User: Fold these one by one.
Assistant:
Number 1:
Amino acid sequence: MADLALEGQIGHHCSGCRGAGMRMITRQIGPGMIQQMNTVCPECRGSGEMISDKDRCPSCRGNKVTQEKKVLEVHVEKGMQHGQKIVFQGEADEAPDTVTGDIVFVLQLKEHPKFKRKSDDLFVEHTISLTEALCGFQFVLTHLDGRQLLIKSNPGEIIKPGQPSTPCFLLFLPFGLRRGWLPRRGADPPIHRTRSGTGHSSRRCANGGKAWELAATYKAG
């Protein structure tokens, strides 16, 4: 609800508070004991002025503000950050003799079960078996915008499916997937390549054909 200030109402100083908007009241709190305190003037409700009945606006009844409904449309651009603010200047509640404030929307990033965001990068984890690590693999990744990306790899190959032409601040950046990552689960030591293809295979097979959890990451570039 936004308040809309109205003009043109004729007012004069409140006789109850003499235009101060506050009144000093005195009350007895015990035998021989009194208390004085300031309180909002009940006649002018703290405004310090009164408007006669003949001059009162029929819409606001002399309050100088009236209630108004307004719909604000918030546009969230691609790549906006967690905690980023969208400001609507001068759209807050209005009041007489005051500067109207702003309405501020603060973006909160909602967690996704599959994709993880870090700054302008987007991370996704995918598990491959030992056989896939040795012989290559392929799988279909559904992007956040609904696109189907075919992720395909041969031994030792580095791929980047698609090179979308987007500004660096956007979330949807080129996707780089590579072999040779370190395992993220299990207590087995990392497996490194050797110069011999035979030695490379034997070292991997010695780990019992366990599946490694690997991390794919978006990187600007």
Number 2:
Amino acid sequence: MSQEILEGIHISDSNRTSILLASWFCFTGFLLDYENAEAKSIEYLRDFLNSSSTSLGNMKAESLISQYYHPKLEDDIAHMIFKDALVLLEYGSNYKVAQNLKAYELELNSGVVKNESEFQAEQLARLLNAKLSTPYTLNTYGHILSQNILSTRKRIQRASSDNSKQKTPIRFEGIEEGIPNRGIQSFFRSNYRVHINLSAIADNKANIMISVNAIIISVLISLLSYRNIAETHPQYILPVVIFIFTGLASLIFAVLSARPKITYPNKNVVDKNIQKRNIIFFGSFVTMKLDRYEEIMDEVFREDHLIYGNMIRDMYNLGKVLDKKYQSLVISYNIFMIGFALTVLTFLATLFL
């Protein structure tokens, strides 16, 4: 921050050097001795200057560092610029980040945890006391301080309002404030499309297994009863029986995958607050009277967290259904693959051995 201000103000090289040195070493003392940071910072500055080959003066830099720990009015231009740099570092464009870091620092080093309204009130008091000394910084950065004062006052009002209501946070409430509405719609639209496509793929694969197994089993049963094959070619009975049983097992799991299942989660529920949480799926409302359904939907549409909560729970339930579908489908394909391989191997063994 000091470098940025120095680019807009013309001062002597000695003052410029002192300001930069003070900026580099002002906070180094906190690294090793938090309670005695001023002395450590000055000590590091002296060590640096003593080890430097240049003949840099350090008295002005030490005075500037002390100004941070013991603020006082100074008419010297170097002190004014350095003071403005410190003010803008803490209350400038990165004020929100610096504010959060200061809260963490206070909590870690002193163990003091303040609520939002108390902390923001202290920050507002410091902001109101923060003054810019040079005309350049006042004209260039003064509006930032004003904006931060207004935003801090709004945070205090919001925190005070929340504390007075003692409101328990509700899931999915107010998410439109943080995410554009179009982005939320795109998220749900793409997720529903993916879930529906995956369900259609699972049903198609299940239909394939049902058709293939049903046809092959029908043919094999007909073959077994044709011209008394058990007496004419008994060596073929074993591979045929193997595939009939494995094909039947594969067909059963394929049917389980494609079989529709309807649940009625709100059938015996009378609490409207519970009914409002699961209202999208048709099994949740077909047992309701029309007036009850309209009343619940009216309340859902008036509260955004209920809309998004219902959609999220519906997507979760769709995922659970897909999980069961694909588990049954995987078992069906595995049984078919193993049964078909055993059938072929058994047939070859009986044919050539």
Number 3:
Amino acid sequence: MSNPAAERSHFNASRCEACFIRHRGICQALSMEQLERLSSIARRRVIPANHYIFRDGDEAISFAAVNTGVVKLIKTTSEGERHVIGLVYAPEFLGHTFAETHKFSAAAATDVDICTFPRQAFNRLLLEYPDMQRWLFEFTVQELDVTREWTLMLGRKSSFERVASLLLIIARRTRNAGAQPVHENCAEFELPLTRSELADYLGLTLETVSRKVSQLKQQGLIELRSTRDVVVPNIERLAEAASMDEHRESAKAAKVAAFPA
């Protein structure tokens, strides 16, 4: 007589081994035996676009690994204003393991495929597997680094450079998440945010974002197949447009070095 629980565990492990993020994200830190343990507590969920995964203040009863799609993180002020504060792509992790409640809301920006893990069972695995702890620590440090860089960008860059920088980040993260560009220096993606959300995320007005997107299109740095479908013909050119401040500072420093006062 077959053992349904054993069959279910074997199926999940096989599915995990074939999953796109098996050798990326938190799963890359696991041996096959450890992956079976993780898959035994995992629940696969498909979340339609614009549906919430959890809300600010909800009890943090589970965590999630993003397999495909984009999740937007939202913070609501005491006045009821919603602000997008981040984006999560595959194979990134969603949730904070030591928080009793969620400090922000998470909603599907596109259709999203995730694996959720019950908090208590997941934390027990963390205690058993140091490699999982190390990966989670490194991921948290990377999140902090990205936040610091984003804060610096908002403070120093022009509106044109901000829009170019965000599109560059989305292009690179889309490629890292497994979307295949036409060739290695090109990317194509669906914008995970509306124009008004882009404006809010960048600290700009909707009109300014629309103008800067039009300028990027006129300069051949992006192509728009629809209001949300974006093609970046040359990622290096977009990177140059997004980094004008750095290029100016480098040129200024070189000039000072060549012609000291």
Number 4:
Amino acid sequence: MADLLALDPADLWRPPLHQIDENTRLSHLDALGRTSLFRHAADKLAADPDPRSRLFVEMVDRALHAHVHEREPLGRALGTQPPAGLSARWAALQAERDRLLHTARASRPEWRTASAARAAQLIDAAWQRYAATVWPQAREDRDTAPAVEPQASFWRLCRLEAGGGPKAVGSERIRQILQLADGPMDRPEQLPLL
């Protein structure tokens, strides 16, 4: 058996050309064939000047090296399945929750112009009312979100939570989410004039 430490991960993941052709389907590829697709994409992107391409190539190189030499599961080596913390799925769900809260905030002038702390209190109160009174019936009757905001965002937030997504719990958490966009201080229109 070949010494794994002597293997070059860049070459290890390149199967012979005859194994993959225009008739090959993803379902026909084994683990080596599927993993070779990462190497192929990295090779194609290596000459691309876009910084994202450079980062992708570096990520694939490091992940394949960790997978071969350190027996790191490939998903963990790629950073899509961390041993603890934020998975790619959870990060996407949180980003959607945050986007919905920002959309709700933008829908009302009094929320839009308020500080993050005040807007969070107002949004949380409206969100709690919606979740307690409207959502139980809307959950049964609707397959699509209402047309108007903030009800549309609240409906989507309820669906997100019902599907196991992150919760929009409490005005303090909402304030933190809004403050990331506003910055650490109140909005300029909220600052007292000297």
